[in-house]
Amino acid sequence: MILPAPLRRSLPLLTGMVFACLLGLATPAAAQQACVTDLDCDDLVSCTVDTCVSLVCQHVATASLCDNGLFCDGAEVCDPILDCQAGTAPVTNDGVTCTVDSCDEVADTVVNTPTASLCDNGLFCDGAEVCDPLLDCQAGTAPVTNDGVTCTVDSCDEVADTVVNTPTPSLCDNGLFCVGAEVC
Q1: What is the 8-class DSSP label of residue 126?
Q2: What is the pTM of this model?
Q3: Residue 34 gets which letter from DSSP?
Q4: Rounded to an integer, what distance in angstroms lies between the CA atom of residue 87 and that of residue 149?
């Protein structure tokens, strides 16, 4: 590109980004802002620290200036052009179906509370299911039906949600008529 004569004569006066802007190599927004004091450097972006260093403005993005003090909405960030930007909330879902997942703002932590009722299959005779915070729902332990008495028939009644030990005299019969009827 050939510069016009008046511009060529003033070439020594042109410096840095100003010269680049005139040649179309840079946009005015990319030009460094000249300054004398820090007050000359306000870029109107609330999360940048604006200072004058060697007569040139410096704008340093500082995320801590965006911090709203809340944990559960994530860590805010500073965009040097768009200003403070919302953070990404922490992931609360642990993938375990029997935990109640939440974010505790007071403790600044994610909470995954095991809740056995989320595992309940509605059956009594297979035992009460439990929630393992790592392994998810686990089968319950069936109630013990054997009462240790040989003349009872032991079972679990799903309708009544109870163990049944039914006396059965025929299980006691020794086959001798003369000794009488055995009872359970």
Answers
A1: T
A2: 0.58
A3: B
A4: 66
